[in-house]
Amino acid sequence: MLRAVSTAMPRGITTAEVARSTSLARPTVHRLLAALTAEGFCDHDHKAGLWMLGPEMYLMGMVAAERYDITETARDHVTALADATGESAFLSVRRGEETVCLLRQDGAFPIRSFVLHEGKRFPLGVASAGLAILSFLPEKAIERYMESHDLASGHGSEHGQDLLRQRIAETRERGWAVNPGLIVEGSWGVGAAVFDTAGQPAWALSLTGIESRFAPERREEMGRLLMHHAHELTKKLRGERL
């Protein structure tokens, strides 16, 4: 339920929406959210009927950040990508079978894509960050994921097994991933994986923008730039954790 609430920030989410997201009964959801609110994990806007994350989540997040948060280390790279390209640049993290956007920096180009923002979650294989991470997991992990997930049912036929496998192969060959407007028509993205000390893809840097600015030659340029920053960030993180 807390994950469902977090995906609706900052607007908030209704009891019915949480119930649908979690497949729990509405009275059960309301009772549990009320209990979480009493402990400070949620807030409730009674007038609007919306639930939001509470102050206790912020405090716990500050403690957890000492171990898991790399945003300050990555911030210079995200800013450099936005400045160099004029597009919106992002840092996303793998959390189980999803990616979560941690950081966004907009470039100078005035037309923005708002497919991705802080807190936004996508399944692995959806959006360029999730595709980059999925593509560089071990083969057995990719197969287990593919066998247990039907991305086409929630994200369209372009995320069917055969097409997704093709994009994984292309990403491995290039080194960086492309989302050719599969989430929102006309909104393209490119992404590159960042690896942890065990050599596993744990984060991703990505760029998004309108299709006209993602012509093949420029995609190659942005892909090489992403790979450079992903490699440099990987080196920094490995050095910090040795």
Automatic annotation (TrEMBL):
User: Per UniProt, which keywords does this protein have?
Assistant: DNA-binding, Transcription, Transcription regulation
* Sample GO molecular function, one term: DNA-binding transcription factor activity
Tell me which residues make up the HTH iclR-type domain: 1-55
One of the GO BP terms on file: negative regulation of DNA-templated transcription
Note whether DNA-binding occurs among the keywords: yes
Note the InterPro entries from the entry. GAF-like_dom_sf, HTH_MetabolicPath_Reg, Tscrpt_reg_IclR_C, Tscrpt_reg_IclR_N, WH-like_DNA-bd_sf, WH_DNA-bd_sf
Instruction: Give start and end of each IclR-ED domain.
Output: 56-239
Asked if Transcription regulation is a keyword of the record, the answer is yes
Name the PANTHER family on file.
HELIX-TURN-HELIX TRANSCRIPTIONAL REGULATOR, ICLR FAMILY, HTH-TYPE TRANSCRIPTIONAL REGULATOR RV1719
Mind telling me what this protein is named? IclR family transcriptional regulator
Identify the species of origin: Paeniglutamicibacter gangotriensis Lz1y
